[in-house]
Design brief:
The complex is a heterodimer of chains A (553) and B (291).
Chain A lengths: L6 H14 L3 E7 L3 E6 L5 H10 L4 E10 L6 E10 L6 E9 L5 E3 L8 H12 L2 E3 L47 E6 L11 E7 L2 E8 L7 H5 L4 H9 L6 H16 L5 H30 L2 H22 L8 E2 L2 E2 L5 H27 L1 H7 L7 H6 L4 H5 L7 H4 L17 H13 L4 H24 L20 E7 L4 E8 L5 E7 L1 H12 L8 H8 L3 H5 L1
Parallel strand pairs in A: 2-5, 6-7
Antiparallel strand pairs in A: 1-2, 3-4, 4-5, 8-9, 9-10, 11-12, 13-14, 14-15
Chain B lengths: L42 E4 L5 H14 L5 E5 L4 E6 L8 H5 L4 E4 L13 E3 L6 H20 L4 E7 L5 H8 L12 E3 L8 E5 L4 H13 L5 E5 H6 L21 E3 L6 H27 L1
Parallel strand pairs in B: 6-7, 6-8, 8-9, 9-10
Antiparallel strand pairs in B: 1-4, 2-3, 3-5
Helix pairs in contact in B: 3-7
Classes of the chains: A alpha+beta (553), B alpha/beta (291).
Chain lengths: 553, 291
């Protein structure tokens, strides 16, 4: 085995070889921070995954299934991706298992690693591979009226196939008992939000159980990407979730750039940071305004919406799109920020920051506002950890997960994400603060407020130190070999977004697996509302700010 | 240009200050052209008619680069030209990069239209029209606004599977800058209260039935506005196992507002076009009942 460049990887390699040597076919490094463990037998996957999860404290980042029956392997492949970030290591462990053609099932890991249960249901729907041992194999992505025996992500399924509808019913969890009622909500909601179905079981006003039924906006994005060119898929990546366009396109571009082993001009990396933080700011402002609306404090929401609109106009003046569509390109960025624009940019942002601080100061004096948020929608830390949730939802519950720091990309490595990490003393202080966070709507409110300020500081810092030079490099085409693959990731305003890309012939896409932060975070809402009453739900939902489209793909 | 955003409001520090807040609303939305930055990607415009010989090489390259197949070659015995279907265009600007002397991206948004054929423009015949028609529509709509909005309009927004970009812009209509309630247009919580359905998204298969039911629950006379390129044609999500390829395959559509996403002004123009259509729809219903 070649000597490891990434110190973190060598540590894991030796342990895995020692413990599971006979089950492992090969261990190799790829793309700087990916450690691939290929297994001999499918059956050993649960044991190794559980070991990485419980002993290495790996966080299950995604499970990728791909239909590689017609290529070299001749099989379905399963890749379990774990994010390792202890001791400042930047490593992804990818456990690769093969499923033989005659086999239409694989051993479930959901009972050991609860976060896996949704991925396994998804694989069951899209590939027709049954997770053996997963107690829940109800349809997920394809709703109950989808006929059995048709699996969209298999290569022999034609994307334009129109399937007839079947009459079947979805089994919701039934809560029975005296006085227990059910309230079905959605998919079309009362507000201007995306579609999804919520099934409440209530006793009086109290929520006894909530079951979410999503995937109403499933558009087949992963299938659409297949056999498309890299450029076209970039447009698709931007539209996975409109308000996350920068994060998703960054993750996608990075996956391609990693495979191509291309390095970006410094200026391009810096501008990616600027655009990503611009996206975070306008979305956090929108969510804070939404929280204020749902609390019933119209003044706060009106003022915060003004700030959001100002930021969106700034987005547009700088990049030509209010939602920052089209800023990223493979190999760099499409839009430059001139010195003059940069200066005015900072001026406007400082202006917004002043106004923002005034509004927040006012909101914090309103006891009715704060009381409504405190202890509402509490995310239990244990559940947060077991379900591997990410982003603001995790940070509000005291789990310090931030891809910008843990697996830093673009120009983030040289930046302090937040001032809390400036000195050992402030790090300790920050850790104590983290432990105090209880995961309620108030802590989400506070985390978002902090992040808006942090993002503004980051932008200012980066814009003042912009490197000279190109904003886009040409990607070495010769490295884009068929069936090479790579991971791309970014921290959106919702949390970690994870893209796995495998190239096919003619530099087209063979398989594109997307997992946005919303996919990880949706299950937690069922836990978060357990101590609340029905009227709290909109507030809990808004404070978590989850994307339906990013979840449903 | 960028300084236009530098309008500082008075922000309340105490509850008493709230009363002193200044007006932030844009007075005349449809004439608010100066806030649209010059680099905004609003519409694809052909700068000149292309001769047959020149077209062939460029045309092939253009149709190749267009991810949603909005650009296509139209060959008739008389002429060969490139046509642009705005209902499919997601304004990515790749065509401009391919043929910068043939195509420019203007900062004026695509005008909302009442029927799909109106959205197809060609490089020869309508080279100038795209620029003009936005202005014309504006003036036209302004008079209609004064004439028709004697009565308020109830709007129900339905997401039939959009990427949520359109939702961000629809929500923006309610912010204090646009504040469309002052025109008597307001968003209602149920289709049963609505005159207008504002539908976004390509209509995914999983939302198809919900959209049909929402349409059925809306009382007559009702107007359906397809918002965004996806709703107009399926856009980048096309017509697949999971999508229907445009909401007009699911419910009848009265007004198309293309754009990815359409900016708030465009949405308002679409709503005003719908306002205009409402009386005639009501009349036709009365006539039908008389029979």
């Amino acid at each position: 085995m070649s000597s490891s460049i990434n110190n973190g990887i060598s540590k894991y390699t030796s342990t895995i070889t020692e413990k599971f040597g006979e089950h492992v076919e090969s261990i190799n490094e790829a793309n700087r921070n990916e450690m691939h463990i290929t297994l001999r037998q499918l059956d050993s996957a649960p044991r190794i995954c559980e070991y990485i999860y419980s002993e290495f404290h790996g966080r299950l980042s995604t499970i990728v299934c791909s239909d590689e029956r017609r290529v070299a392997n001749g099989r379905f492949m399963l890749r379990y991706v774990f994010s390792m970030s202890d001791d400042g290591n930047d490593v992804f462990i990818v456990v690769t298992a093969k499923i033989d053609q005659h086999n239409s099932s694989f051993p479930s890991i959901a009972l050991q690693i609860p976060a896996a249960f949704l991925y396994e249901r998804e694989i069951n729907d899209m590939f027709g591979l049954t997770p053996q041992g997963n107690p829940d194999v109800r349809p997920l992505v394809l709703h109950e009226d989808w006929p059995s025996g048709a699996f969209p992500l298999r290569k022999d399924f034609d994307i334009s196939t129109k399937m007839p509808r079947e009459h079947k019913e979805y089994r919701f969890t039934k809560v029975e008992g005296e006085g227990v009622c059910e309230i079905p909500v959605g998919p079309v909601h009362a507000g201007i939000i995306e579609p999804g179905h919520f099934r409440f079981s209530i006793l009086g006003e109290h929520i006894v159980n909530l079951e979410t039924r999503l995937f109403y906006t499933h558009k087949g994005i992963e299938k659409l990407a297949e056999n498309r060119s890299l450029e076209e898929t970039l447009l698709l990546a931007e539209r996975i979730s409109g308000d996350e366009s920068v994060a998703n396109s960054t993750a996608y571009c990075q996956a391609v750039e990693k495979i191509a082993q291309s390095s970006l001009p410094r200026r391009a990396e810096q501008l990616r940071v600027v655009y990503a933080e611009m996206e975070r700011i306008y979305n956090h402002l929108g969510t804070l305004a939404g929280i204020s609306t749902d609390v019933g404090y119209a003044y706060g929401s009106a003022r915060l919406n003004i700030l959001k609109e100002r930021m969106m106009r700034l987005n547009e003046t700088v990049t030509g799109s209010r939602l920052l569509f089209g800023v990223n390109r493979i190999g760099g960025v499409a839009v430059d920020v001139s010195d003059e624009v940069g200066k005015t940019f900072i001026e406007i942002m400082n202006d917004v920051q002043q106004d923002f601080e005034a509004v927040i100061a006012l909101l914090k004096t309103k006891s009715s506002f704060i009381d409504r948020l405190r202890n509402t929608g509490v995310i239990p830390r244990k559940a947060a950890k077991e379900l591997s949730i990410v982003g603001v939802a995790a940070r509000c519950a005291g789990l310090d997960i931030d891809v910008r720091r843990d697996h830093s990309y673009a120009a983030y490595s040289g930046l302090r994400i937040d001032p809390h990490h400036d000195s050992p003393r402030s790090v300790t202080k920050y850790r104590i603060e983290m432990q105090k966070r209880v995961g309620d709507a108030l802590s989400r409110f506070e985390v978002r407020v902090d992040e808006v300020k942090d993002s503004m500081n980051i932008i200012e810092k980066v814009l003042r130190n912009l490197s000279e030079g190109e904003i886009r490099a040409t990607v070495p085409q010769e490295n884009l070999k068929p069936y090479s693959h790579g991971l791309g990731y970014a921290e959106s305003h919702r949390g970690e977004t994870m893209h796995w890309l495998m190239l096919g012939e003619n530099k087209n896409i063979f398989r594109y697996k997307v997992r946005t932060a919303s996919f990880c975070n949706w299950p937690i809402i069922e836990q978060a509302v357990m101590n609340d009453i029905i009227p709290d739900f909109p507030l809990v939902n808004k404070s978590l700010d989850l994307s339906y489209s990013g979840n449903d793909l | 240009m960028i300084r236009n955003i530098l309008k500082k409001g008075i922000f309340a520090k105490t509850s008493r200050d709230i009363l002193n807040s200044k007006v932030e609303t844009i007075r005349n939305l449809l004439e608010d052209t100066d806030v649209i930055p010059t680099n905004y990607r609003g519409s694809v415009i052909f700068t000149k008619p292309v001769e047959q010989s020149a077209t062939e090489g460029i045309a092939a390259a253009l149709t190749d680069v267009c991810a949603t197949k909005a650009l296509s070659i139209k060959a008739t015995p008389e002429e060969t030209c490139i046509t642009l279907d705005r209902s499919k265009c997601i304004l990515c600007g790749r065509c401009r990069e391919t043929a910068p002397d043939l195509i420019v991206i203007g900062n004026k948004f695509n005008p909302p239209v009442k029927s799909k054929p109106e959205m197809i423009v060609s490089s020869t015949a309508q080279a100038q029209l795209a620029q003009k028609s936005v202005e014309e529509t504006r003036i036209e709509l302004k008079t209609r606004l004064q004439r028709t909005l004697g009565r308020s309009l109830a709007v129900r927004e339905v997401d039939s599977g959009s990427c949520n970009g359109c939702e961000v812009e629809v929500t923006a209509l309610n912010n204090p800058y646009y504040d469309i309630e002052r025109f008597g247009i307001y968003f209602v919580a149920s289709p049963r209260h609505a005159d207008v359905l504002l539908v976004t998204g390509p209509s995914s298969r999983n939302m198809e039935i919900a959209l049909q039911r929402t349409y059925k629950a809306t009382p007559e006379p009702k107007i359906v506005i397809a918002v965004g390129t996806c709703a107009c044609s399926g856009g980048i999500f096309g017509d697949t196992y999971a999508t229907t390829g445009g909401i007009d395959k699911v419910v009848p559509v009265d007004v198309y507002v293309s754009g990815c996403p359409p900016r708030p002004q465009a949405l308002l123009s679409g709503l005003l076009l719908a306002v205009d259509k409402l009386p005639s729809k009501a009349q036709s219903r009365i006539d039908k009942e008389k029979k």
